[in-house]
Fold each of these.
Amino acid sequence: MRREARLGVMAALAAAASLLVPPSPHASGADAPALCGVAAAQGEGRLEGVLVTARRKEASFSVTVSTNEQGRYCFPRSHLQPGEYALRIRATGYDLEGSPRADVKADRQATVDLKLGKTRDLAAQLTSQEWIISATGTREQKKAMQRQVINCNFCHTLERVLRTRYTAEQWMPVIARMNSYHPDYSGSVLVQKWRGMTGADTWWTNPAGDLASYLASINLSQGGTWAYPLRPLPRPTGRATRAIITVYDIPKQPNVIHDLDVDASGIVWYGHSGYDLLGRLDPKTATFTDYPAPNYSTQQGGVVGLMDVQADRDGGVWANVQGPKLARFDTRSLTWRSFDLPRSAGAFLAPFRAPNTTTVWTHSALRLDVATGRVDEFDWRTQLTGPHTLYMVDRDSQDNAYFPDYGRFGYGNSGITRIDGKTGVATFYPTPTPDAFPRRGYIDAQDRFWFGEFFGDKIGMFDTRAERFQEFPTQHPFSSPYNARPDKHGNVWASSHGTDRLLRLDPKTGQILEYLMPVYYDARKIVTDNATERATIWLPNKNTAQLIRIEPLD
Ligand code: HEC
């Protein structure tokens, strides 16, 4: 019998059977639809790439899927337990009409169709990237605002900046005040002062006066509306609509979070950067727990909170605490152990991979031997010429360290600096793109370092064995890839700054898919959990203190 014919017969049998028997076991299986519907706009019909978010009243998380080519969305039963859900959408240019609700039952599929109308406030829906693309100005002017180590949409959106009526003169004290906030420990609510940047005359590499004049030319100081059309990017299509996104709200609010890691049993650990706390999420039960973390800073009024968090292979979670120490949390005994360092670890720690779990590399070019407590100090400064700033750190299979290196404030040098773990020799490898600003990334099992080129708008790869780079451009300018990480299928995932989009690179074709997130996000870390059937991606959302889980469906 030919295959199609047999399928035809089976479908007919199945249809007949469904008339006779109660819902089959399949219909109540995890993949069976719990809630479906279509999203359509007046005069335009059904729309693809509309993000539909469902939230159960009592839940601490929400679940998002997208409409497909036919404008249809479906939530599987695995992600929506029975209950009453409120629905919302993200589709730039549109508002959802009414406040639709869904009553999800255990034994049958619920249907809710969504009506969309033209939005009354497009400006409120634009991402910072869309503002930059829309605004008038030369490349140099846009660079001053956005291509900075810490830019004007680092701690809040550009909407906040561009809805103002400030003249150039009125901008000057505002820019000076922005210089005083700590970039990593200041959300827009939880502000910590920073001693790193001072002075009212500059904004990083730029004269503050030039930036002030530019800002006054693109905000509302000239009149009631913007002098340029607002240009949203297209909605997601095709494969970029095929993902289930779960957004968990961290209970401790307000908050700023920076890094996370997933341990071997799928538990998520994250660093609160607003408090001295290590956070834990069990995604299976959506349960959060906080553990007090040590702070060894001796500075009066010094900053509080954790940055990088790395799970080792022995039930430990290493956290980047304040002060000249490293701290490891034993997840079984729930106790901390600390290790003395000659200076602070910097912001980041290298991930742990077998067989190198016996050492810890820090961003400040130290290497701790965990068993003996011995620390090797590597002096790369005397070996390299020109401006260098070593950013995060990772290591290859031979325990040599690699640091994205951004010169001075992202300019003058751009590349990867390697420190040989045995000899201490430092070598600088420049990226093909000048001023690419390699920011953060991850070394895969073939010793290839994948990283975000923050100013270069590319995902970079440095093959540490062949000592060769490859660069993959993003679809749109100002995508600002921040951190990149490969999964077990060979895709490379990158968080992207100011865009609310998650990038997925297929290195074989060079194609980058863009998944729009349902929330305003910024993630300094990206983790792929390869223990799940398809790789799962986790993002710590610094903007709103949430943890985002992305489950791609293909
Ligand atoms: C390090 C974090 C950070 C960066 C970077 C930052 N801001 Fe802010 N911004 C804040 C915080 C915190 C607030 C709220 C407190 C306040 O207004 O001082 C704020 C508020 C604002 C406001 C609203 C308050 C007002 O005075 O009108 C504007 C406008 C603004 N920022 C513009 C900018 C511009 C322009 C830049 C780039 C030059 C920038 N911000 C960069 C943290 C930051």
Amino acid sequence: MKTAVTVISVLVVELILLILFVNSGIYNVSTLSPDPGFLHWVFSRTSDNSAKAHSKDIPIPPLNDSSMVAEGFKLYKETCVGCHGAPGVNRSDIGAGLYPHPPNLVHSAKEMQASRLFWVAKNEIKSTGMPGFSRTHSDHQIWEIVAFLEKMKDMTPQEYAALVSAKTAMVSTPAKGAMKAIHPYKYR
Ligand code: HEC
């Protein structure tokens, strides 16, 4: 009985201290003052283990299909490169300003199962700036992005740049009249 009273008293005191701490404003939430080592460890281990556990049973579809990779490249360029960069491409100012920093996905794709890349891109990671794409992209589109990541992890900056210029050339030289058909009011 005495032990139970002591344990409860300690818990109540800890709870009061926690409430005082939360209301004090002492903790600096500025990203210029990084989390202390222990907190950083707690957050990153929790996030890593959660992603691992939740993605481990997701079946991985065949990812070697060239049209999936090509579509995945377009989607990666539209939605991911600003924050994560690519071979030879730096993160944008927005990506560079986030904390935790968006990792280089070349390394992530080398280290992680495709199912984990898929799970993170689909679900987002709370309170980090990593958006989830389940509301805007189908599962198939997210797998296309993963198919591209599996290729990008072995690409040189030159190979990535060649893909970008091939894509730009296709967009900037549309068939005669194509732009007129798409934007009749603009190209009259
Ligand atoms: C607005 C910025 C932003 C965009 C856009 C973004 N991400 Fe992220 N992403 C992040 C941040 C920040 C993290 C780090 C989260 C953390 O440390 O827990 C992250 C983490 C990840 C991770 C985990 C990698 C690792 O090594 O732990 C994957 C996989 C990922 N993003 C994939 C994508 C894909 C695929 C896209 C595009 C469809 C994308 N992200 C778009 C900000 C972004």
